[in-house]
Amino acid sequence: MNVVAFAVLLASFAVIIGVNVLVFGRRRRTLGPAAIEAAIAAQVPDFRCGPIVLAVDGGGALAQSSVDGAIYLVAVLGRGFVTRRLRKELLRAVRRDGARLTIWLADFAFPRARLLLANERLAHEWQERMRRGERE
Amino acid sequence: MTFPDIVKLATPVLLAFIIIEMIVARWRGRGDFEARDTAASLLVGLGSLALGGVFAFVFVDVSRVLASFRPAGIGESWGALALCFVIDDLGYYGWHRLSHRVRWFWADHVPHHSSQHFNLSVVFRQAWTSALTPILIIRAPLLILGFPLPTIVFTGGVVAVYQFWIHTETIERMPRWFEAVFNTPSHHRVHHATNPRYLDSNYAGVLIVWDRLFGTFVPEDPADPPRYGIVRNLGTFNPLRIALHEWVQIGLDIVRARSLTEFVCYLFAPPGWSPDGSRDTTDTIKARWRATEEARSSGR
Questions:
Q1: Is A17's CB within 8 Å of B42's CB?
Q2: Which residue of B has its CA nearest to A47?
Q3: Cβ distance B74 to B87 under 8 Å?
Q4: Residue A16 to residue B19, Cβ atoms within 8 A
Q5: Which among A119, A100, A122 has a CA at the least distance from the CA of A52?
Q6: ipTM higher than threshold 0.95
Q7: Separation of CA B177 from chain center
Q8: pLDDT tens digits, residue range A5-27?
Q9: Would you say residue B109 has pLDDT above 50?
Q10: Which of A64, A68, A127, B154 could bond to B3 as cystine, CB 3.0-4.6 Å?
């Protein structure tokens, strides 16, 4: 491919992305409790939602299964979302800064999630839940 | 016979159709585009193009070696072209099925399925690492049978370019006869869906008859709209992570392998295999879904 063809290709990519922003905007998804339960149930059909906490911006949530105590992370990615069961081997670290939780995962495709919870008490409570891990 | 470079000719048209689809999708309220997702798809496509050029010698050299085994050449004719196309499409079905059932091949193919959207831009999410997978096995029979290389390259291009238009939500259904014979947007939506009922189905390139013949056909059910992506969706739009994440995970797994069996299974078992069964394969997801459905229908 010559330089001109490459430049034209890049320019066409820029036009496509520009039109995409113009036509569809930059809106992103926000999650409510029903959407979170549906997101997890899509992966775990017998999931029953127990305790749940939402990020204040609706950009993520943590939910615990009332069936087996497993903790799930749901994070918004644009207009999609990502769900992970926070198994011991996946959860690398959980750091808390006030009401903000930063969750580090051993996952090349989803290395980190940040959730700003409503208050410090909630953040501390969920940090402890994740530290304790799943019920055996 | 001289054949045009169909992929090269089609690319500008395909790019223009992405814009047309955006406008139609917005106007009809059917289909969705997200700028970062579209950008990621296009950049993954650019990487695939670049690496395809770098590793082209692998395909050229292997093709030459395979062609040397052929007993006699098949001449160029319309009949030979049609036969080559049908065999190539069958080969594509086999390779595609393998790409979903063997982790080594899945690592190469998974970028194409990684978007949570389903639109024409997704076509550009192509593999970066095809030189690491013996994709030539689908073309090997054609070379050994004696089809001329230009014919094989052309029919391969037709099978690839055909699949562009089926990556859309804007077309609901084609006429019944067409749906029966050819791969269509409806069939391919099912292929890209993560709903348990749709997993591992509709592998066809052009002719959906292969799926009907080999028992992998699943029709789209309006009551269960497709959810696109992969079972463990990616938490990133980074093209590098999109293209390489499964290879990285394979590397981490084989380092942890405790036996030769584990080592081999991490490479070649179905995606999601783990020694203790703690991860999900599509088979376990489907089994759990069926059990839940049966429990629901029996009123438990």
A1: yes
A2: B292
A3: no
A4: yes
A5: A122
A6: no
A7: 24
A8: 889 999 999 999 999 999 998 87
A9: yes
A10: B154
Contact A55, A117 (CB under 8 A): yes
Show the tokens assigned to B68.
């040397």
Token pair for B90? 């069958």
Record: contact A16-B23, CB cut-off 8 A: no
Q: What percent of chain A has pLDDT over 70?
A: 97
CB A130 within 8 A of CB A91: yes
User: Which 7-26 residues of chain B touch chain A by CB within 8 A?
Assistant: 12, 15, 18-19, 22-23, 26
Contact A133, A89 (CB under 8 A): no
What's the CA gap between B231 and B228, in Å, rounded?
9
Q: According to the model, what pLDDT value does residue B53 have?
A: 73
| Residues of B with Cβ-Cβ distance to A15 under 8 angstroms | 19
**pTM score:** 0.92
Q: Is the pLDDT of residue B170 over 60?
A: yes
- Tokens 């030979």 locate to B80
Residues in chain A: 136
DSSP B204: -
Cβ distance B135 to B57 under 8 Å? no
State how far residue B239 is from chain A, nearest Cα, in angstroms. Answer: 11
Count of CB atoms within 10 A of residue A116's CB?
15
For chain B positions 177-216, those within 8 Å of chain A (CB to CB) are 194-196
Quick check: A13 and B195 CB within 8 A? no
Chain B touched by A67 (CB under 8 Å): no
Contact B116 A77 (CB under 8 A): yes
Residue of A nearest to B45 (CA): A13
**Cα torsion angle, A18, B128, B205, B148, sign:** positive
For B91, the 3-state DSSP assignment is: helix
Interface of B with A in 22-51 (CB under 8 A): 22-23, 26, 32-39, 42-43, 46, 49
Per-residue model confidence (pLDDT) at position B186: 98
Report the distance separating Cα A3 and Cα B180, nearest Å.
Answer: 44
Using an 8 Å Cβ cutoff, are A123 and A117 in contact? yes
Q: Which two tokens stand for residue B171?
A: 């077309």
Q: Which two tokens stand for residue A24?
A: 């569809």
Which backbone phi and psi does B201 adopt, to 5 degrees?
A: -140, 165
Q: Is the dihedral of CA B12, B17, B20, B26 positive or negative?
A: negative
Q: Which of B18, B227, B235 sits opposite A77 (nearest CB)?
A: B235
